[in-house]
Amino acid sequence: MIRTTADGPVRVVTIDRPERRNALRPTDLDELAAAVTDADSNETPVIYLRGAGGHFCAGADLDSVSELADPEAFAQKGQQVANTIADASAVVVAGIDGAARGGGVEMALACDVRVATPDATFAEPGVEFGLFGAWGGTVRLPRIVGEGEAMDIALSGRVVDAAEARRIGLVSRVVEDPRTVADEIASNRSDALRVVKRRLRDDADDKARERAEAEAFARLHERYVGDIRQTRGERGGDDSE
Asked: According to the lineage, what is the superkingdom (predicted)?
């Protein structure tokens, strides 16, 4: 599900579940955290996070969401993975092609640099069936794009294309091959990269906001899990949060 390859100064971490647009199950979250931790422990200066099969990540797998025994723990697990990405010493570059939805957007938000292809699209569609992005999305999205844009994206569930994502600061560049940006960053001094990232990441503690986010997700999950299962059935096993 999660593949890791070393390519010079760049460690490539690939979410490899293209038949489900790289939707993430709990076990996949564990694998993703382990892959990022392993890459970081090898003093890799740049980690490049991508999805297989023409999509970045469709978020949380709806089969898993519909059967959650402990939705708050699931939200916290996603937050922990996003924090593992954000807290890595290495610079983490998200190369976003195709769909980034829900938790996929949130994993991208945790990265240091987000680079999209012209075909990339972004959305937080959880409100459609009574949920929301609870892997740190309510903390990071307004910080990155501003409160007004974050409210619009999160409350409407609408799809944002690559050009708009660049305009509002959701991504920093739109290029044909995002990997070239990872290579560009990796060409610099690794010790300087780590220091600059640490300084730019130095801000107030968001843990209390994340706890509140996970608790709210659990309450909504209890209320709407039946609707989620119905939506899952109507889509015939396709799509995810």
From this structure: Archaea
Q: Answer yes or no: is 197 within a domain.
A: no
DSSP bridge partners of 100 = 57, 122
* Residue 53 region by backbone torsions, left for phi larger than 0, else alpha for psi between -120 and 50, else beta: left
Distances (CA, A) of 8 to 12, 118, 182: 10, 27, 11
Query: In CATH, what number is assigned to the domain containing residue 11?
Result: 3.90.226.10
Q: pTM, whole model, 2 decimals?
A: 0.88
User: What CA–CA distance (Å, rounded) separates 107 from 86?
Assistant: 9
Whether 199 maps to a domain, the answer reads: no
pLDDT in tens, 125-151: 989 888 888 999 999 999 999 999 999
Domains of the chain: total: 1
- Fill in the amino acid letter for 100: A
